[in-house]
Write a structure and sequence with these properties.
There is one protein chain. It is built from five helices and 21 strands. The protein has helices at residues 5-21, 89-105, 107-110, 272-289, 291-295; strands spanning 28-32, 37-43, 48-60, 66-77, 80-88, 126-127, 131-132, 136-148, 153-162, 165-176, 190-196, 214-217, 242-244, 249-255, 297-302, 308-314, 326-327, 332-335, 347-352, 370-371, 385-389. The chain is α+β, with helices and mostly antiparallel strands and 390 residues long. Strands 1, 2, 3, 4, 5, 6, 7, 8, 9 and 10 form a ten-stranded mixed beta sheet that branches. It has two domains: 25-176, Immunoglobulin-like (Sandwich); 190-389, Glucose Permease (Domain IIA) (Distorted Sandwich). The longest helix is centred in the last third of the chain and has 18 residues, at 272-289.
Length: 390
């Protein structure tokens, strides 16, 4: 009699195939940014950190639907669960509607940099949930955390049901604490005002490329940023200030031909509401024109280590360096202006992980030549700080 092992092997293979047909495909869990998530100190003396998960998506690529029962956001340290937040019930339903509305509104196409382009939600994926059919996804956006001590991993734990079967799936994202590897100096000399920074109560922290960026101005008489009515760029104390390289680097990108538009300034006597409506329309037009119109005149430096610094909104024609130039820390790059998406003269300074002002993820910065006269102890610059650079 012949050895029937080949028959048994074939039978086993067929049984495995039938069995696997009953096993639902795991959902695809993606993060944006995909490589890591970074913290920034909320209170340095007490070791309190802030963390923001910008985006995650749960996608069903299989033919059969499943329902998300709950999403657990878990912060880990050394393999141990430390903190957990559950999204379920009404909050889960609301999140599904929010994702669908974001996609339907066109926001993801208008601001692709905020959603990592096509790598988060590709073509053919429809957002909604918590019931997800084939090629449908559930978008989770902007989840903040505050904690004391060490956390090294964020785990997204999804609890779902399919064919009355409960299934748990999970994906992890490394948490990185600390600052850029490059040693940075403040990009303006003397006394400045960090009007916007990485603190959660200002807009930068909620946008992926500029999550740890600063908008830097100057304050003068009457605690105002301008003299007189503020109707002209030259009324502003910061306008024309030399912008300095914050570290040694190689010029990776420059723009020097973008105009400044006095219409972006708030007019004397104009209400905040009227100004907000007017400037929103102006900003929308800039967004439609792309990165050059948004960032205005700029310099971007490559510092190695996958770290790039950006100096944006410079005075037209003031950029003094060219792509490929080697510059030293403290070297002049251009003059502080109000080109691009700017509501008054200021320097937008950020460090991020790619040579693209918008197509990158922010990196926290600590400056080694500053004093914070109103801080109780040395710490990173927060939104609203007065900064004195030595």
């Amino acid at each position: 009699m012949r050895n029937p092992s080949w028959i048994l092997a074939l039978l086993a293979s067929c049984l495995a195939a039938v069995a696997s047909a009953d096993v639902p495909k795991s959902p695809d869990i993606r993060f944006c940014p995909a490589g890591r998530i970074r913290t920034f100190p909320l209170e340095s003396q007490r070791g309190v950190e802030g963390l923001l998960l910008q985006n995650a998506v749960i996608i069903n690529h299989g033919p059969e639907p499943f329902e998300i029962a709950a999403i657990d956001l878990e912060l880990m340290a050394d393999g141990k669960l430390i903190d957990a937040r559950r999204i379920a019930g009404d909050e889960l339903m609301k999140g599904g509607k929010t994702g669908g509305n974001i996609q339907a509104s066109g926001v993801m196409k208008a601001f692709p940099f905020q959603f990592c382009g096509q790598s988060l939600v590709g073509e053919g994926i429809t957002l909604g949930g918590p019931v997800l059919g084939a090629n449908q996804g559930y978008l989770l956006i902007q989840q903040p955390f505050a904690f004391k001590g060490k956390r090294d991993t964020l785990r997204l734990h999804v609890r779902l049901t399919r064919f009355a079967q409960n299934i748990d799936v999970a994906a992890t994202l490394p948490i990185e604490s600390g600052f850029a590897k490059t040693k940075f100096r403040f990009p303006l000399a003397g006394a400045s005002f960090a009007a916007v920074g990485p603190s959660l109560h200002t807009a930068h922290r909620w946008a992926l490329p500029e999550e740890f960026a600063y908008d830097i101005a100057r304050i003068g008489a009457g605690n105002l940023s301008h003299r007189g009515s503020g109707a002209a760029f030259t009324d502003y104390y910061a306008y024309g200030s030399p912008v300095l390289a914050a570290a040694d680097g190689t010029v990776a990108m420059t723009v020097n031909d973008q105009p400044e538009d006095v219409a972006t300034l708030r007019r004397p006597g104009e209400t905040a509401e009227a100004y907000g409506q007017r400037v929103q329309a102006l900003q929308g037009a800039l967004m439609a024109r792309g990165v050059r119109a948004i960032a205005g005149n700029l310099v971007m430096l490559d510092h190695g280590n996958g770290e790039y610094s950006l100096y944006a909104h410079l005075v037209p024609g003031s950029v003094t360096v060219r792509v490929g130039d080697k510059v030293s820390a403290g070297a002049p790059l251009g003059k502080l202006g109000s080109s691009g998406n700017s509501t008054e003269p200021h320097l937008h300074f950020q460090v991020c992980d790619a040579p693209d002002p918008l197509g990158c993820a922010g990196i926290p910065v600590a400056f080694d030549n500053i004093e914070l006269p109103f801080a109780d102890y040395p710490r990173p610059v927060q939104s609203g700080d007065v900064v004195i650079a030595h």
